[in-house]
Design goal:
The protein is built from no helices and 11 strands.
């Protein structure tokens, strides 16, 4: 079992920045791939970014590449999502998720944190 707790959401003006954190506890997190997803009102949940804990490799959705950066803090078992040049269309509930490396399905999810970008 892996428990995930997000924090850092809030209200920001377009062009601003926010940093989201995801604290992971439970099983050995180094075996996992950590992802960020988001869901805007009336839309399906979509992939944002992911990082492989063991080697730090990353991958981004095209809509956020160059503006968002995902990283991990091994000492704190925390995954960070630094969001810059935010746009109103980035407004959503952001979720942290975890899956075992080599698997496709994300089995563990956090409760979500709201990000609102005003124009």
């Amino acid at each position: 079992q892996v428990e995930l707790v997000e924090s850092g959401g809030g209200l920001v003006q377009a062009g601003g920045s926010l940093r989201l954190s995801c604290a992971a506890s439970g099983r050995t997190v180094s075996r996992y791939v950590m992802g960020w997803f988001r869901q805007a009102p009336g839309k399906e949940r979509e992939f944002v970014a992911r990082i492989t804990w063991s080697d730090g490799s990353t991958y981004y959705a095209s809509s956020v590449e160059g503006r968002f950066a995902i990283s991990r803090d091994n000492a704190k078992n925390t995954v960070l999502l630094q969001m810059s040049s935010l746009k109103p269309e980035d407004t959503a509930v952001y979720y942290c998720a975890a899956r075992l490396a080599g698997k496709y399905k994300y089995d563990y999810w956090g409760q979500g944190t709201q990000v609102t970008v005003s124009s």
